[in-house]
Known about the structure:
Elements lengths: L1 H14 L4 H24 L14 E4 L30 H9 L6 E3 L12 H9 L4 E6 L6 H10 L3 E5 L5 H7 L5 H17 L6 E8 L7 H11 L3 E6 L16 H15 L6 E5 L13 H4 L2 E2 L5 E2 L20 H5 L2 H8 L19
Amino acid sequence: MFTYINNLKEKVERQVGSDFLQRVIRYQGAQGLVNMVNISLTAIKKEHPANVNYLPPCLFVEVTNRCNLSCPTCQLGTSEAYNGYNKSDLTLEQFKKVIDQVPSLIYVTLQGVGEPLLNKDIMKMIKYCSDKGISTYINTNGTILTETKARELIDAGLQNLSISINSFDEKIFAETRSGASITKVIENVRKFIQIKSELNKKRPIASFRAILMKETEPTMEDLILKSDELGIDVLYIQLFMSIIADKNLIESSLNKDEINTFAEKLKRWRKQVKKLQIVTESFGDSSNNLGQCKLPWFSPNITAEGYVTPCCTISNPSLLNMGNVFEAPFEKIWNSEKFVDFRAGFYKKQPKACIGCQSYKRN
């Protein structure tokens, strides 16, 4: 229990900020504190109730399902049609309607299957959250992270900027990032870090997100050391998930022994970096390792078309969705019969939509 609470504290402070309770009091008042107490009492339980007496503190909001790349490790890059989606951007008014329906929020990830910087209103969305005391996170492929956008992200109050970089090797990067250039992306990232330094800003923290797979594993040490040299704050390393990738990459997952071997090497590499924090997800020693997946209780997903899904991995509404926030109030969907049934059976048997997900595991 102590380890869990410590891991949770580290994760919250890194992603949300150490002042989140002060912000809850300032922006949400007594009702916000009551909601946070109920969230905390549920979070420390080994198994969570199907019907919850609070609104979620975190939310994934897909601001667009369009992308300027078509990567084989992403749903949008699969060889088969990605069913269930119309290409669309969330409008600013739709975004406000979503956020206003969940007054308990302290953290929002403006992210889905698309490239968030393609949404023309992304800066206004971040600012809308900032003005409500809500921390924000986006994950970008970095190809259109211009100097102008960098300054706008900082000015809007973004808390966490994550860039998808699987390798510093040009060939491996191009193969896993749909032909994008690592040289150009690093140039954009270096400029962002420079601007943040010139403005004397601590936030947003700059992080890389890398996928651990057979293709990228050989260059992971190089990625770690160069990320540290560049001035990156956090490197997230997540396991490759074949369920959302092109079928040609079906053999790209590392087996259990290979993952354990990598985790051992990672212990040595951690000692070599000066500033970089390395966070693994769903394997090894990790600040993000909180045991069984908890997203359906604390951080659901809303697609660009308004569909509510239990988590960001189940992002295709044709596979599973609990309702649409533009057709029914979020609070009603949150404890709807369909959502409650999903949570009730979650610990008994792995849901069909979760098969293949690395985050699903028994406590």
